[in-house]
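Dear colleagues,

I hope this message finds you well. In preparation for our joint manuscript, I am sending the MAGUK p55 subfamily member 7 (Hemibagrus wyckioides) sequence together with its predicted structure, so that both groups work from identical material. I would be grateful if you could confirm receipt.
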Amino acid sequence: LEPYMDATDESSFLQDMLMANSLHVLIKLHERLQRFNTQKPAPVQEHAEHLAHQVMKELHALEARPEIKELMHVLSKPHVQDLLSVHDSVAQNDYEPRLPLLAADDDEDEEDSVRIIQMMKSKEPLGATVKRDKSTGALVVARVMRGGAADRVGLIHEGDELREVNGVLMQDKKPEEIIPILAQSDRAVTFKVIPGTKGQLEPDNTEVFVRAMFDYHPEKDSAIPCKEAGLEFWRGDVLQILSQEDDTWWQASRVADANPRAGLIPSRQLQERRVVLRRPEALFQTSRALTTNSVDADYVAIHGIHMAGLRRSFRLSKKDHRRQEMQAKWKKSEVDGENHISSYQEVVPYVRQPGEPYRLVLLVGPSGVGLTELKRKLLLSDPEHFGVAVPHTTRERRRRERDGVDYHFISKHAFESDILHHKFIEYGEHGGKYYGTSLDSVRKVLAESKVCLLDVEPDAVKLLYTTEFKPYVTFIKPPAIEQLRLSRRKARILASCDEAKPTRTFMEADFEEMINTAQDMEDKYGYLFEKIIINDDLATVFTALRAELKKLEKESNWIPKIWP
Ligand SMILES: Nc1ncnc2c1ncn2[C@@H]1O[C@H](COP(=O)(O)OP(=O)(O)OP(=O)(O)O)[C@@H](O)[C@H]1O
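The corresponding structure tokens are as follows:
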């Protein structure tokens, strides 16, 4: 305090100030912040958004309980997704300005001109891989990931020679030695490159979309040139192929991703080679002939709705095996190449135009899983909108049965002639009588502008795998055995032919068989399934299936590009 000032005034002012509550609060706050700063709180994880996406993906397959639905609803909210995205940005310290170009020296005419590229450092990977050129020994850019940082800056191209990184000469350096150099720099990264002769890549095949037929986890793939550059995906995901330049590693992004940054995926060639080398016999078995077995295809008329065609009359059952030659085999040339089973199926977006027939809804699943029940519920929910095909039979017409409504009653001779002319999707024999569903009976339902519900053995799906039917193949899968026991306590299934009564309750062996058959079907025919639904709680599953079919009718969906 200056001596000429009024010391009393000053000291009372100082005393007031030091005693003030607000100052004390400020000091406490300061101390807290200091403590907080020294503790350096670390995020539990940096990829909450990705984790939420994965959780949603896994829950999507379940779609059963209300808690799951609620969680899916919460996670799909834009606010929650934004919140997770912000969390990740903070966790990754990713709040630097993005990629402004600070300096560039690009005298394009001079072949050996050195280009200086400066980029702001961020947590985002550079999006380029580097290799040593065998002939010159120089470090060159091997690959620029589409949509990545380097690609967006647009000044680093495949084939460019790296001369310096942050002032460090790259001569005699190994590709992996660049990483610590990049890590050391604080904010900006400077590259000195000699532009390669290859120049900028033209985007190729940007409109190629494929459905993945396998799960891929780059971190488990020892062959991928750079694990961080890999794109993780699951069977059924639709991918956009952004580059097929490299025969072994394609670049792709997941269509459903909010941030469609390109990643490396195994090329079709590589994946198919891998699968063939791994287990050739499992994938390329010859198709099994349809086993036919029958319990009479009795119909039930409920509230005046004719349910003919609801119950399969030629149901495959392991207990009553009687094999019969199926009239049509998978025609290799007619489908999207059997080799695509193990890799990618090319798909295109499809939206049904007004007046066009609906996609044929094919339900596939092991016997007893609930195909008939789901079809019945759908049919009852909207008989004007859903329909089932009327089957053919050679058995006698019964009282109250109407020809062409309950069955098409035809002679044995006519039936056998139809078999020879490949008119049936499936047929079987029981008690010396034929039963079958014809292609024409399906066409008739579609021509009435109804959604045709059909359940078939997976073998028969291939027959309907055409542009004409555009089948939406839904696999109805049993839940885990404990849940089967619980949910099917009161259910009844068709009995074997040896048993006196036509139906009986489920036994433990039925559950085991159902689960095993489902697994076999999924292994062998999984590539045909567009949707997998676990038949757990019937009401929830029905609602989910109904919603799924509504979505299918209205929204754009992905269908194979090559349907015969
Ligand atoms: N989610 C479920 N919960 C409880 N019971 C179910 C469920 N789904 C189906 N059921 C019952 O299981 C029994 C068998 O179902 P359903 O007849 O639909 O099987 P399916 O797949 O058509 O097999 P199949 O053609 O051999 O009869 C029926 O009594 C049905 O009501």
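For the figure legend, we might mention the following. The mean pLDDT is 80. The longest strand covers residues 188-194.

With kind regards,
E.M.
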